[in-house]
Write a structure and sequence with these properties.
The complex is a heterotrimer of chains A (481), B (480) and C (96). By secondary structure, chain A is an alpha/beta fold. Chain A is 38% helix and 13% strand. In chain A, helix 2 packs antiparallel against helix 3 and helix 9 crosses helix 11. Chain C starts with a helix and ends with a strand. The chains are: A alpha/beta (481), B alpha+beta (480), C alpha+beta (96). At the B-C interface, strand 2, helix 1, strand 10 and strand 17 of B face strand 1, helix 3 and strand 3 of C.
Amino acid sequence: MTVAEIGRGLRAGQFTSIEVTKHFLERIDRVNKPLNAFITVTPERAMADAKRADAVIARGEGGPLTGVPLAHKDIFCTEGVLTSCGSRMLSNFIAPYDATVVERLAAAGMVTLGKTNMDEFAMGSSSETSWYGPVRNPWDGTKVPGGSSGGSAAAVAARLAPVATGTDTGGSIRQPGALTGLTGFKPTYGRVSRYGMVAFASSLDQAGVLAQSAEDAALVLGAMAGHDARDSTSVNAPVPDYAAGLGRSMKGLRIGIIREFFGAGLEEGTGRAVRTALDGYRAMGATLVELSLPNLPLSVPTYYVVAPAECSSNLSRFDGVRFGHRCSEPRDLRDLYRRSRGEGFGAEVKRRIMTGTYVLSAGYYDAYYLKAQKVRSLINADFRRAFSEVDVLMGPTTPTPAFAIGAKVDDPITMYLNDIYTIGANLAGLPAVSIPCGLVDGLPVGLQIIGPHFAEEHLLAAAHAWQLQTDWHRKLPPMFA
Amino acid sequence: MSIEWETVIGLEIHAQLATRSKIFSGSSTAYGATPNVQANLVDLGYPGVLPVLNREAVRMAVRFGLATGATIARRSIFARKNYFYPDLPKGYQISQYERPIVEDGTVEIVLDDGAHKTVGITRAHLEEDAGKSLHEGLGKHSGIDLNRAGTPLLEIVSEPDLRSAREAIAYMKKVHTLVRYLEICDGNMQEGSFRCDANVSVRHKGRHEYGTRCEIKNLNSFRFVERAINYEVARQIGLIEGGGSVVLETRLYDPDRNETRPMRSKEEANDYRYFPDPDLLPLALDEEFIEEIRGALPELPDQKAARFVHDHGLSGYDAGVLTANRELADYYEAVAAMLGGEAKLAANWVMGDLSGFLNRDNREIGRSPVDAKRLAGLLARIIDGTISGKIAKEVFEAMWEGQSDADAIIDAKGLRQITDTSTIQRVIAGVMTANPAQLADYRSGKDKLFGFFVGQVMKATGGKANPAQVNELLREMLAG
Amino acid sequence: MTLTRRDVEDMAELARLEITEEELPVYVESLSSILGFVDQLSAAATDGVEPMAHPLENQVQALRNDLVTESDHRDRYQGNAPLVAAGLYLVPKVIE
């Protein structure tokens, strides 16, 4: 059942939140182990949340999300609950506070089932780098679910939770969404508060959702979004009623097709599925225009300078002094730092920290970091130019469907190129969504829609329109057969 | 042949801004709390926390910029200074690097010989303070207290315009006075609210290039700054004259041994990898914001001193001493006003007896037991001749010890000046009779004995005879 | 773009990461290939282009009122700390 359906059912008295929650907890108990989607399950908290929600509903109060369960990516601080970021460094960290996202969804009455698995510190595109082991794609247990929000994606795809939160820095919501047949939504930078969301790359990170449909995404996003005085980068602008805007017609919608996204590297089946979807929009009355965003191919190298630079600094706080992993019997201060961090972080995290350290260091700052921020301006300008001509941009979310676990883990560059279509939106801070648009050899692929700043409503409407016409988003992985 | 050396000094002053809460969090900045009770999640650098900028810290920085005639950046940027040290919880300090909030100011100082000098302020920027490390009493460990972490600092960097330790002190004192006038910093050096690093180098006089400098860190008293600079200059000159060269390094001053030593750890070969902090947006200041602050600026020390010289007729030196401390200047001015403009008398007493007692009891003017009104009351009695200046000192001491006001004490102790001519004449006559030998000597030409007779008359009158009248009458009567 | 062992050792030191002898050549290789990959950026024409530090181009920093809003939660926070004594976070002794 979708979030919308559960919400309606609860308010109609067809079932209680306790019943729904029990259903999901039991399912997690049965199904999670091979998938490894959850790091922590919080049954007591869930039942307490559900009980409270039922009381609210019984009083005739509450909203569309009251009593609806969800899972949180383990990057969001949840008070009193392990918040590990998929890392040994935080494997003992009980967060003393709730992230704003967690607070707001709890205030909307949602029930927390647990914390989902992820690439360590959100650095990855496959959810293979977690200290807690890799996550498996419910569509094919030998394949990755994508990353870094792979646990959230697997949880929703396997219906262990009706919806889950995720974070997207270079594609970490959209890419797993595409690989698991979900609607993965990343809002505009600054739309959702980053307070309590463990920082990876501060100018790129955004919280969003892995949902079964655009309607579900609209409901949850509406409760997550909004200004937070505790986050200086959060935008002080009113949050529209996303659900209300869903039924918009696609007639006259100007869709830009990014030429650079349809070159070599795009797997054939994926390309075909995406083009079919584009034809579908044309049939709905939209106009398609081919556009060139010439600097977009530099997105990945730009990202792999900016993101590591920011993360190298953000992760300096993990030093074994006030929280987190501490090595045993440090000989001196230097040993404390080196061994705590050496032991606490995995290889990919260390690679990115060192890359970031290098590109910020004296003598290299201008050639790397400053240069990358300038190229970022160029990419941003490309998008701005595009949006003066079209309403939204569309293209594939990923170059291929889900790949095998272990296939790319030893080659960072190949892994990085998975984000080739998604990174641009992060660099420019644009909202973007991936929606299911087909199956290639039984594996889902996604259509990506990118909009200008604060165009969440338009993206959700476009996604919804597609989901009214097709049922890719309703398809279940074979495990349900 | 000896070559003349020139000393080049630049000072970096870290002034803790007197805000109630920290620069990026709502924790208290109060001094002296139990370890770590004033360190919240933001101060502790917990995962997921973010900084939010304190408006008052910004206003205080602008105030300083306006008071030094500096350029206030309409747009300034916060940057991360990355290094590892246990008192720096995030592993980076949020500071300002390429675009500070204040640039290109000046400060006027008065040198020992009375000459004026303009010292340039390259920049002043906002940053957060680190915590404290305690190294004693914890065995094999050091203990970290993060109460101070996140306290706002204004880092004030001077141009290398200073040419001696004395100039450096004059500059440091001027900045110390200024930040207190502006009420942006309490200037308490013992508590670490006002800290100074000195960059010192030497070069042959007449050369334009700078010699290699050393940075001497964390000097927290005027005396230490002076001594450390003098030691360092001598060390560098000695080194160069001995054929060696100065190494660019950071040094610590040891007050017990009066020497500087290279500093280990922390600053070694550090590449700070500055980059704009992505968690903070550019700080934009509009004209309205700046003008509001400009309009609320207090009269600055130089302006006040000039006014004292021009309107009150005080000497430049006196004006300088009185205006070094705003409360002292206000006190003096209140006294002078109550005396209808007897500025010099008020100045002398404030700089002299009052300051003497304040220093003796280690009090600031704000805690003087004698307020301006009561001091004015005392000085009024000198002006109207009720008591002499000398007796007034006795009365003042009694006032300081808490024995009410001047008039009450004068009456209680019977200290009124004796001004009645016949009374004084009688006393003089008595003294002359009691000292025939001296009288004879004086009358035969030993003029110096006049002082003896004055002393005797004063003694006989318990110091209360009006000195001017004693002089006049004594001359008459001794003449015979 | 080939990094040397020394380059990687220096970076690891700046970042306070212990890299073992066995791991070192692996990092030399992967970091060299990453930096080689990002070298593509040098070809981009960026003269006169302003660096983009933020996606929110017109947004400026909000200012907070100067109020004490926090109270003492030391004991709760120190529950997470690996080593504390007398309210202080302990590290191996540092000699200045």
